Amino acid sequence: MKSIVGKSLVVVLLLALAGGLAVWLAYGDEIKGAVAGEPQEAPPLTAPVTRGSVQQAVTGVGEVKPLATEKLKPADSWHWLESFDAPLNKRIAVGEKLVTFANGETWVAPYDLVVTDYTLPEKNKGAVTKDDHFIEVQRIDKVNIVLPVSETDLAALAEGQEVKVRLGADEARAYDGVISNINEVGTYGATGSKFAITVEVPNDGSIKLGMSANLSITVDEATDVLTVPVSAVSGAGENKHVEVYDAETGERRMVPVTAGITDGTVVEVSGEDLHEGDDVVLDEAGSLDGADVGDVAIMSAVPSA
């Protein structure tokens, strides 16, 4: 009986040793690497293919300026000055007093404005006349923002086009403006020609002259399309592609795509072998260097020096 048990134990030990040897021969390098602490290859940085909308826009930064600078003149009739009632560099609403005359009549603001200068006689020492006297004002019931744009963007812009405006002082709020003028004469520089466009924005009193403003003019939009981050697209021209990654198998495969419009963050893509929910590999540098991701280039406007 003892002999049988002993032989059985020997057989079990031999089988265990044989199994261990087989495992070592098959996976010895991996086991040694893990024991030695060698780094294992990390999965790539990916993002899912999503379905949504993409807006392409001309963007830039400008300074808030008055709608106009004017010299207001008094009426033809002569009146002696009683008092000048308008503080300098303060907002004066339409209808508020600028001047009180000795006979009790008043000269009022024809629109919301800021008084910057004036030439008037001293109290009760002369009549106010249109030839000799004026009040210089900046009109602020509406304001202008001038934005220089690249010549390559002009074809997508037109007078009357809507503009979204956000002030540096309150970027959470968006104001509605329109392009009121596109300058016919450009300025040539090292980066090409730029043309000044003027954006007119109604002022409810919250916009102050000299503020910075961020402008965005939507020039194209695609809805219900597949989108990926711009750093997922490689190649140029008709040879663009993305790399689809299977997390379960670790497999990567190149998928040809056609790139559409981009907002600078995501780009519209289409391809027979690309589907919503696929994971695409991102360029970890996250740049567009060397890749033309869209059929229309990203358009932006930066103020010239």
From TrEMBL:
* GO molecular function terms listed in the Swiss-Prot or TrEMBL record: efflux transmembrane transporter activity
Cellular component terms per the entry's GO annotation: efflux pump complex
PANTHER family for the chain: MULTIDRUG RESISTANCE PROTEIN MDTA (PTHR30469), SLR1207 PROTEIN (PTHR30469:SF33)
Q: What is this protein called?
A: HlyD family efflux transporter periplasmic adaptor subunit
